[in-house]
């Protein structure tokens, strides 16, 4: 079976993104944090099965405004499977993060979206069935 092993995103503030991810996914740990003197910082954060590579913008680069999501090219959101959407929502809301779009009630899954301080949208999914046909039922 093919699986996604990691994704790599450039963020304006690696430490802020690490904070967000550790609140949302307490099982995530920093695997590697490199700070080359002549280049940009990068971090791998994740668990035993998956990680996200965070890359600081290159030295002396001027960040461009993020393009509007769902309209232009780029990442719209990153989704992660979690054991409890309610727990993620409680932790992130308590930490002051804002929810993203509202999701409809679905029979076999719960979802919630949050926006991190860099403007990235993250989706958290809790499946209520182990059956593939249930998990990917689009009602």
Kindly summarize this structure in a few lines.
By secondary structure, the chain is α/β, with parallel strands linked by helices. The chain contains 3 helices and 8 strands; from the N terminus they run βαββββαβββα.
**Count of individual beta strands:** 8
Largest sheet: 4 strands, mixed
For this structure, what is the CATH class? Alpha Beta
Q: Measured on Cα atoms, how large is the radius of gyration?
A: 16 Å
Beta strand %: 25-35%
CATH superfamily: 2,3-Dihydroxybiphenyl 1,2-Dioxygenase, domain 1
Helical percent range?
Answer: 10-25%
N-to-C order of helices and strands? EHEEEEHEEEH
Average pLDDT over all residues: 89
Low-confidence stretches: none
CATH topology description:
2,3-Dihydroxybiphenyl 1,2-Dioxygenase, domain 1
Which architecture name does CATH use? Answer: Roll
- Supply the helix-strand structural class: alpha/beta
Distance between the termini: 26 Å
Widest β-sheet, arrangement of strands: 1-4-3-2
Layout of helices and strands, plus pairs?
Blueprint: E1 6-11, H1 14-24, E2 29-34, E3 42-46, E4 51-56, E5 78-81, H2 85-94, E6 98-99, E7 109-115, E8 121-127, H3 132-135
Parallel strand pairs: 1-4, 5-8
Antiparallel strand pairs: 2-3, 3-4, 6-7, 7-8
Features:
139 residues; alpha/beta; four-stranded mixed sheet; 3 helices; 18% helix
């Amino acid at each position: 079976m093919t699986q996604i092993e990691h994704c790599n995103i450039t963020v304006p503030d690696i430490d802020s993104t690490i904070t967000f991810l550790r609140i949302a996914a307490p099982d995530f740990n920093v695997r590697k944090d490199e700070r080359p003197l002549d280049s940009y910082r990068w971090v791998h954060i994740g668990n035993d099965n998956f990680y996200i590579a965070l890359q600081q913008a290159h030295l002396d680069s001027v960040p461009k405004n993020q393009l509007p999501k769902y309209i232009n090219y780029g990442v719209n959101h990153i989704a992660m499977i979690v054991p409890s959407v309610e727990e993620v929502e409680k932790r992130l809301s308590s930490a002051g993060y804002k929810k993203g779009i509202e999701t409809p009630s679905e029979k076999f899954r719960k979802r919630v979206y949050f926006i991190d301080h860099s403007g990235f949208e993250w989706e958290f999914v809790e499946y209520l069935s182990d059956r593939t046909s249930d998990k990917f039922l689009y009602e």
